[in-house]
Amino acid sequence: MLPLQPIGYIHTQKQVKFQARHQPTESVAERNILELLPDCDYEQALHDVAGFTRIWLIWWFHRNTGWRPRVLPPRGPATRRGVFATRSPHRPNPLGLTPVPLIAIEGRRLILGACDLVDGTPVFDLKPYIPAYDSFPDEKAGWLDEMEASLAAPPQFRVEFSSLAQEQAEWLLQHWAIDFRPRVNELLSRDPSLHRTRRITRRAPDEFVIGCGAWRAVFKIAGKIVFILSLEPGYPRRFLEDPARTEGLPDRTAQLAYMAQWPSRLSAILPRAAP
Q1: Which residues make Cβ contacts (< 8 Å) with residue 136, sequence separation at least 6?
Q2: What is the Cα–Cα distance from 226 to 74, expressed in whole angstroms?
């Protein structure tokens, strides 16, 4: 057995995997904490780290079970790739590697910027990010270069919202500051076909659903037009009203309020918990 033990754990607002977007950018304002374990002299080990503005985290995909030799990346066409040619978490040894902004150090606590780790993730090591050694922008990126070239082309589909979907989206924005229309448009205008990683599934022969964070958009496809029929909460009422499940469910209060606002459309899809 390899003597590998966590040096600490991440504390973030991300409770479920879909909240931790892969390769986060600094356009998302975040404040995360890496808390190192006590009584290990890690305060000494952190000496001089404060001079770096970015660090590497080596961590464990602790919620994964098993691995897959070929995986479906979330971006690009629905083509399976060898897992070693991707950043997929479904690996033989599920190790993650993330460069994160270092904001401050407070004792054993490192204050970090945007990261793609969920709350409680064990971290095995941290290393300084050194631009002169860690950045090679002119290197080739295989199938990713081809994908980026295809994404640079104009979108192939036009996304339109029904009057109901538009009303629901405006209500969410006005009352809860939630607006996932840009994400829906970004994904569906490129490719609305079934895709497990992009969370696009079929509900009926001509009706589809895409998951966006804690929410869903129901849509149909007519030629090159993707027509959004309605928006829905991503969790059933029985989950949202179950005290044992309430902690960590994103947008829980907003989803319950949404169900009260549009109960008829949701009644058949999201059954109430038994009294």
Answers
A1: none
A2: 19
Tens-digit pLDDT profile for the chain (275 aa)?
Answer: 677 899 999 998 766 554 545 555 555 567 899 999 999 999 999 999 999 999 999 999 888 888 889 987 777 677 888 999 888 888 899 899 999 999 999 999 999 988 888 888 999 999 999 999 998 988 888 888 887 777 677 888 999 999 999 999 999 999 999 998 998 998 899 888 888 777 899 999 999 999 988 899 999 999 999 999 999 998 888 888 887 766 667 788 888 999 999 886 554 444 333 33
- The CATH classification of domain 8-146, taken from the options 3.10.310.10, 3.30.2130.10, 2.40.30.70, 1.10.3720.10: 2.40.30.70
Specify the fold of 158-266. YaeB-like fold (3.30.2310)
Distance between CA atoms of 185 and 183, rounded to whole angstroms? Answer: 5
CA distance 265 to 230: 9
What whole-number distance in Å separates Cα of residue 54 and Cα of residue 67? 30
| pTM of the full structure | 0.65
Cβ atoms < 10 Å from Cβ of 228: 23
Where in the chain are the domains? 8-146, 158-266
Helix (H, G, I), strand (E, B) or coil at 173: helix
- Residue with structure tokens 């754990």? 9
- Neighbouring CB atoms inside 10 A of 170's CB total 13
Cα angle 111-90-77, degrees, rounded to a multiple of 5? 100
Nearest alpha-carbon partner for 10 in 50, 64, 58: 58
CA–CA separation, 60 vs 124, rounded Å?
7
CA distances from 9 to 28, 30, 196, 248 (A): 21, 17, 29, 17
Q: How far apart are CA 190 and CA 219, in angstroms?
A: 14
